[in-house]
Design brief:
The complex is a heterodimer of chains A (185) and B (476).
Chain A lengths: L3 H9 L3 H21 L4 H18 L9 H23 L22 H9 L3 H12 L4 H8 L3 H29 L5
Helix pairs in contact in A: 1-2, 2-3, 2-4, 3-4, 6-8, 7-8
Chain B lengths: L6 H12 L7 H48 L3 H4 L2 E4 L4 H4 L2 H6 L28 E2 L4 H4 L17 E4 L6 H5 L9 H6 L19 H17 L1 H4 L8 E13 L4 E2 L7 H14 L3 E13 L4 E23 L6 E3 L2 H6 L10 E28 L2 E21 L7 E3 L10 E16 L2 E12 L10 E2 L3 E12 L2
Parallel strand pairs in B: 2-3
Antiparallel strand pairs in B: 1-3, 4-6, 4-15, 5-14, 6-7, 7-8, 7-9, 9-10, 10-11, 10-12, 12-13, 13-15
Chain lengths: 185, 476
């Protein structure tokens, strides 16, 4: 198995076999990233394709200040955001009333990640993006507001709504599991 | 919102996706690869475009310099002297129409005493030579202020004008030497203000004296031009080694369309078209010898190893007869199929892939050169023919999955064994040592005949543009 250094050097020289090896190493994980920001698999694959092309073009300038995987993930997220930006213009995010969430312990251990993906994909557009950026990518609301061109309050309210919707879905799924076990997955 | 900031919920989601992975469909990589190939092709095209532009710019530069050189160097001193105005004669005689009409020598007598435009100017029965330029007429007509020179011991002085720079106003108005703005003439290099031996340049030095002395020197120069000419004709025989790089363009190729449009025929025709019309890069390396035929003409010839590399897209492979290997689709492969095999049995359609194509020739150029500038910095125009002997053609599919094709000369080859090309170019050179000269050679090569044999059905006349760098050793 090629080391990250070898992969990088091969890709910087434009060697096709190294480019393919890099793609094969990260494509599965990156498709999940793309799926989190899209509605369908076809859309996610489009994002994945465009993002990897960007990766191969920009890899010459990669200075290894961060991990390669982190750098690639960032490109995936940015590409996905560019994809979704048009939709955000069409359906701008609006502030929604912040909801007091019930104090309830939620466990995701019994739920497969594909179920979680489906839940995220079913969220409204704005909620989906803000939730991904805040909960999974680890951005704070100020950064999200700057990235998406919205107010910090909008980011918070969108996240609040996303979280409520997800909790409801998770609880529903949990009850289903309690009744029928994990066979559904 | 407080609950939102509880780490449990976010962490749970993050952990759930930490090691998650879903394989994408295979078309994603195919599309990525196609895009990468396309962008690499664009890079190559940009490089080719750059080479072409550099070659074109060099040729334009060469032709411009050549035109200028022809215009400048073909003028003889006699032609440059159009008017000679004799200042010795009385002024009224200088205005005679027949003297003006003669065109070659206009003699004007300027009696400084009689011409009292400027007080204190005295040029009595003396002659001066003054070269005037047409564009400077206005300036020249200005009078000299406070000119009080007295010239003695100078005889037969003349005013010399350029051939097409007749100055009727100057002559008709009977302007005296005193009326000329000599500082302006110096400034605009109408009169070169170099000071001949024996005359010290001081602030008080009279410009007329300087001018007279300079004109005398000029007269000597004109009478003995060969003595002053820089001796560069000592380069009689030389040899040079050189390297050239450039591009070639096969877009003017044509492929005979098959009468029957079977799948094989369509595939072979499309592949041959892609192959013949591909553009690429060319390199040559060689040794040349040259000799001088006359003062202006040289003859150069030599031996060069020439390669032309390109790549084209194929969408099929050709199975070999005996083994289970496959060859990339090419004109060679389709030409090599026997009549009985000309069905689809040995040709398999595939996804498009790239084939690297390399042609090698032994080139024997022979060029005549005309020297426009024959000094330390030299410039010449070259034209000639090249006899190109086909050596080998190699084709290999990108990725190395298919067997490589190495095609030599012979009956099975679709390439002509002997080709002739026209050569045209320029050479800018610099002699940096007694026996060494370095030269830059932009040039164009145009084949007189197709590089493919007539029976292959493919006609291709790839035009090449290149720039060479040569180091010349001068034997004598």
């Amino acid at each position: 198995m090629l080391s990250e250094e070898e992969l990088l050097n091969g890709c910087k020289k434009g060697n096709r076999s190294f480019q393919k090896a890099l793609y094969e190493r990260y494509c599965q994980k990156m498709l999940v990233v793309c799926l989190r920001y899209s509605r369908t698999t076809a859309e996610a694959e489009d994002i994945l394709q465009e993002a990897f092309i960007k990766v191969f073009h920009a890899i010459k300038d990669f200075r290894q200040e961060s991990k390669l995987e982190t750098w690639i993930t960032r490109i995936m997220v940015n590409t996905a955001l560019n994809f979704q930006r048009k939709k955000l213009y069409l359906f701008p995010m609006v502030d929604v009333q912040e909801i007091e969430l019930p104090e309830q312990e939620i466990s995701l251990s019994s739920i497969h990640f594909t179920q979680l993906l489906e839940m995220i994909q079913s969220l409204p557009q704005g909620c989906q993006i803000v939730f991904n950026l805040f909960a999974i990518e680890g951005y704070n609301h100020k950064e999200i507001a700057e990235t998406l061109g919205i107010s910090e309050g909008t980011s918070k309210s969108q996240y609040s709504r996303a979280r409520l919707l997800l909790q409801e879905k998770i609880l529903k799924e949990s009850k289903y599991y309690e009744r029928y076990g994990k066979a559904r997955i | 919102m407080k609950d939102m900031e509880k780490p449990g919920f976010e962490d749970a989601f993050k952990n759930a996706f930490d090691e998650a992975g879903i394989p994408p469909s295979s078309k994603v990589w195919s599309n990525i690869e196609a895009d990468l190939i396309r962008s690499e092709g664009e890079d190559l095209r940009h490089r080719l475009f750059f080479y072409k532009m550099v070659a074109a710019a060099s040729v334009i530069f060469a032709l411009t310099v050549a035109a200028f050189g022809l215009f400048y160097f073909t003028q003889t001193p006699d032609q440059q002297i159009a008017k000679v105005v004799d200042l010795k004669e009385p002024r009224n005689q200088s205005d005679k129409p027949e003297n003006i009409a003669s065109g070659t020598e206009k003699q004007t007598n300027v009696d400084a005493d009689a011409n009292a435009n400027v007080e204190g100017t005295h040029i009595g029965a003396k002659s001066q030579n003054v070269i005037l330029s047409e564009t400077e007429e206005g300036k020249a007509r200005k009078s000299v202020e406070a000119n009080s020179a007295e010239v003695s011991g100078k005889n037969n002085s003349k005013v010399i004008l350029h051939p097409n720079e007749r100055s009727p106003e100057l002559i008709d108005q009977n302007l005296s030497i005193a009326e000329l703005n000599l500082p302006a003439l110096y400034k605009h290099r109408i009169i070169r203000p170099s000071i001949p031996q024996g005359i010290r340049k001081t602030e008080e030095a009279d410009p007329v004296i300087l001018m007279l002395a300079r004109l005398e020197q000029l007269e000597k120069e004109l009478s003995e031009p060969e003595e002053r000419k820089e001796k560069t004709s000592d380069e009689r025989i030389w040899t040079s080694v050189g390297f050239a790089a450039g591009s070639f363009d096969g877009s003017n190729s044509t492929v005979a369309r098959p009468a029957q449009s079977s799948s094989l025929m369509s595939t072979s025709s499309a592949t041959a078209d892609n192959e013949a019309s591909a553009s690429g890069v060319s390199y040559s390396l060689g040794v040349n010898v040259g000799t001088r035929l006359s003062d202006k003409w040289v003859l150069q010839g030599g031996v060069n190893y020439l390669t032309q590399n390109s790549s084209y897209t194929a969408s099929s492979v050709i199975g070999s007869r005996n083994s289970g290997t496959f060859l990339p689709a090419s004109t060679n492969g389709f030409t090599g199929l026997a009549d009985g095999e000309k069905d689809d049995s040995r040709v398999v359609s595939t996804a498009p892939y790239n084939v690297n194509n390399s042609l090698r020739y032994l080139s024997l150029p022979l060029q005549a050169g005309y020297l426009l500038v024959d000094r330390k910095l030299g410039f010449q125009l070259n034209a000639g023919v090249s006899t190109d002997l086909f050596l080998q053609n190699s084709k290999s599919a990108e990725g190395g999955a298919l067997q490589k094709i190495d095609q030599g000369r012979g009956d099975g080859s679709p390439y002509r064994a002997l080709n002739f090309s026209g050569l045209m170019g320029a050479e800018v050179s610099y002699r940096f040592a007694e026996r060494y000269r370095v030269a830059l050679n932009p040039g164009v090569r145009y084949p007189f005949n197709s590089i493919y044999r007539a029976d292959s059905g493919v006609k291709s006349l790839p035009m090449s543009y290149d720039i060479g760098l040569r180091f010349r050793y001068i034997f004598q």
